Amino acid sequence: MLTIAERMRGSKQTLYNYFPSKEDLLRAVLDFDVGEIADQAMEEFLGERSLRKGLIRLGEIYLARQLDPLAISNMRIVATQPAESGIGEDFYENILCVAWKRVADAFKALMGEGKLRRADPWIATMHFKGLMLQDLLERQLLNAAKHVDPKEVEAAVKHAVDAFLRIYGNEEPKPGKARG
């Protein structure tokens, strides 16, 4: 807290006036970080005319952030907190799940419009997330790769979106036609 206060050119007491504990400060940082990215991702996803392009954009934003060193660092910090602190559970339920619920709600609307096959929107969302991650997150968390090649991320997103649309899409791709 002292280091943060010094960087902000304030006092530790002022910081504690806003955040009663280090855990509260961590929660605020995580909430802001995830919320900001979720807002951007949803705006760009919903702004695309093509479902496939929108899903690709959503996947690109998600993976870029998920694989970013700061996000990896935040995940490691949360994972090393004692279970009794409740930070991990709070982060999962009140930050991550809230962000993914927005995607599930969008998928539910797309299912209602007939653009996606009717299914449980939450499960479809978790399938989308899992298809995106592949082994990319594990490699970063475990320091098995110094960085992920952007071309690999781009390919992973396109393969994941195509697989997702094969499972949940209502339109069959036209044989021999390139999809953009």
Structure explained in plain terms:
This protein has a single domain (23-168), classed as Tetracycline Repressor, domain 2 (Orthogonal Bundle). The longest helix is centred in the N-terminal third of the chain and has 26 residues, at 22-47. It contains nine helices and no strands. 18% of the residues are buried. Helix content is 72%, strand content 0%. It is an all-alpha fold and 180 residues long.
Instruction: Give the CATH class.
Output: Mainly Alpha
Any idea what the radius of gyration is?
Answer: 19 Å
Distance between the termini: 48 Å
Question: What structural class should be given to the helix and strand makeup?
Answer: mainly alpha
Uncertain parts: none
Query: How would you characterize the largest beta sheet?
Result: none
- Proportion of residues in helical segments: over 70%
Helix tally equals 9
Question: Beta fraction of the residues?
Answer: under 5%
Q: What is the CATH topology descriptor?
A: Tetracycline Repressor, domain 2
Secondary-structure element string: HHHHHHHHH
What's the number of domains? 1
The geometry reads as elongated
CATH architecture: Orthogonal Bundle
* CATH homolog superfamily: Tetracycline Repressor, domain 2
Task: Present the secondary structure layout.
Blueprint: H1 2-7, H2 12-18, H3 22-47, H4 51-66, H5 69-79, H6 87-112, H7 121-133, H8 136-141, H9 150-168
Helix pairs in contact: 3-4, 3-6, 4-9, 6-7, 7-9
Features:
180 residues; mainly alpha; Tetracycline Repressor, domain 2; 9 helices; elongated
Q: Would you summarize the structure shown here?
A:
This protein is mostly helical.
